[in-house]
Specification:
The chain is mainly beta and 173 residues long. 13% of the residues lie in helices and 34% in strands. It is built from one helix and twelve strands. The strands form four sheets. It has a four-stranded antiparallel sheet with strand order 5-6-9-10, with no helix packed on it. Strands 7-8-12-11 form a four-stranded antiparallel sheet, with no helix packed on it. Strands 1-2 form a two-stranded antiparallel ribbon.
Length: 173
């Protein structure tokens, strides 16, 4: 009986690290998610102008009478250039418009994040890794390695990722 108990305890002890590894790191949400910034509780919003242009903002309150509202985003791994299994496109639900980031202008520590028609296949600028940091995700652009960020006034851009995860403006849930 004692051997059986010791064997069970040893088995549980061996399984715990495997469970921790399986639940950390990158993950993905599903279709119809609303990305909300941890620092402000504002949503990542898509705006479509009458001239056909699109733009992002992070200045809209996501909650209304206790219900989450805002733009719905779809994560997809279909049609990615050089798929590795860890990157996703962030596409505005029901559109062919993808979240995109390019390199920062020379001498700048921020780079534009914006929307453009999704490429086929989706290029590295349109691919994002969702890295779980304990209280949300850092959305890391595949090409630049920078994180989606937004300030309190609603501007959305990318900057170097905070490796300590203290920048709540880079954390989305």
């Amino acid at each position: 009986m004692r051997k059986t108990l010791v064997a069970k305890v040893a088995g549980i002890a061996a399984a715990i690290p495997m469970l921790v590894l399986a639940t950390t790191g990158s993950a993905h949400a599903a279709s119809g998610i609303t990305w909300t910034q941890r620092a402000t509780d504002h949503c990542l919003m898509w705006h479509h102008n009458s001239d056909g242009s699109n733009w992002l903002s992070g200045d809209n309150i996501c909650w209304n009478d206790g219900h989450k509202q805002g733009v719905k985003w779809d994560d997809s791994q279909s049609g990615l250039e050089n798929q590795t299994g860890e990157y996703w496109t962030e596409k505005v639900n029901g559109t062919g418009v993808c979240l995109t980031a390019y390199w920062a202008p020379s001498g700048s520590n921020t780079a534009p994040a914006y929307l453009e028609p999704c490429s086929g296949p989706a290029n590295y600028y349109e691919q994002w890794k969702e890295v779980w940091v304990g209280n949300g995700f850092q959305l890391v652009n595949r090409m630049t390695g920078w994180c989606l960020d937004a300030n309190g006034s609603g501007s959305v851009y990318t900057t170097a990722c905070d490796p300590n995860h203290n920048n709540k403006y880079q954390i989305w849930y």
